[in-house]
Amino acid sequence: GQNIDQPTEMTATEGAIVQINCTYQTSGFNGLFWYQQHAGEAPTFLSYNVLDGLEEKGRFSSFLSRSKGYSYLLLKELQMKDSASYLCAVRDSNYQLIWGAGTKLIIKP
Amino acid sequence: IAGITQAPTSQILAAGRRMTLRCTQDMRHNAMYWYRQDLGLGLRLIHYSNTAGTTGKGEVPDGYSVSRANTDDFPLTLASAVPSQTSVYFCASSEGQDTGELFFGEGSRLTVL
Predict the structure, then answer these.
(1) Do A59 and A76 form a contact (C-beta atoms < 8 A)?
(2) Nearest-neighbour CA in chain B from A79: distance (Å)
(3) Closest Cα to residue A103, out of A92, A89, A94, A93?
(4) Are strands B10-13 and B108-112 parallel, antiparallel or unpaired?
(5) How near does any CA of chain B get to the CA of A78, in Å?
(6) Most buried residue among A15, A109, B46, B101 by CB atoms closer than 10 A?
(7) pLDDT tier for residue B42 given thresholds of 50, 70 and 90
(8) Within a 10 A sphere around the Cβ of B7, how many other Cβ atoms?
(9) Is A83 helix (H, G, I), strand (E, B) or coil?
């Protein structure tokens, strides 16, 4: 079966750096997405990786290794507003998105 | 700029009743999706449409139906609601089935008693 694994919850300190890992086993691969979801709100797009390597976008970066079935989302200079759930999703060979359960990130002052 | 609009935002429904969740997008996206989100689980695809006039079943389609009469609208119908359909429902759209990220509506919280 298809599977996306992420840690359930992580805690970090304001101003610090945190890395959220995502491993996947899917039928084919056509890209990996990271979304941010604040409590009670809709998911919003953060990043997209289809080739190996690091994609940087401001304080957020996302890394992909297709051979390892692995990605991470790196958040720098954490702010209180970064407290949210972070969702990893893989587009499979049928172009359907397979979603992880999400990682709840708690930021402490 | 609306993006994707869902209605209602919240609804309490008696088991056995019929319910339609509405979804409208103004981005002229070809692909649209309905997901449900339950605590501890990832988003699960109910139904999708790659273009107007076509629909397909996702991971959890039983008890739900959809239609795509035009590009903008993609309603989700629960023919006879059951308590296990209590969930938060998100409508989403993308330029195409294989292009672009998904844009989500604000969600519809449905409680079936």
Answers:
(1) yes
(2) 24
(3) A89
(4) parallel
(5) 24
(6) B46
(7) confident
(8) 15
(9) coil
Beta bridge partner(s), residue A48: A33
**Nearest chain B Cα to A49, which residue?**
B101
Q: A33 — contact with chain B (CB < 8 Å)? A: yes
Please answer yes or no on whether A97 and B97 come within 8 Å at the CB atom. Answer: no
Residues of chain B in contact with residue A96, where contact means CB-CB under 8 angstroms, are 45, 48, 58
Q: Tell me if chain B has a CB within 8 Å of the CB of A69.
A: no
Q: Which residues of B touch A (CB under 8 A)?
A: 40-45, 48, 58, 90, 97-98, 101-107
A45 and B105: CB-CB below 8 Å? no
Residue A94: which pLDDT band, with cuts at 50, 70 and 90? confident
> What is the C-alpha to C-alpha distance for residues B93 and B113, in angstroms, rounded to an integer?
30
Q: What's the angle, vertex CA B5, arms to CA B96 and CA B20, rounded to 5?
A: 95
Q: How far apart are the first and last CA of chain B?
A: 35
Please, how many CA atoms are within 13 Å of residue A16, restricted to the half-sphere of its CB?
Answer: 13
In the predicted structure, residue A1 carries a pLDDT above the cut 80: no
pLDDT of residue B1: 59
Residue B41: its H or E element: none
Q: Using a pLDDT cut of 90, give the percent of chain A over it.
A: 93
Strand segments (E) across chain A: 3-5, 9-13, 18-25, 32-37, 44-49, 53-57, 60-65, 70-75, 84-91, 97-99, 103-108
* A96: confidence class by pLDDT, cuts 50, 70, 90: confident
Q: Give the tokens for residue B29.
A: 């996206």
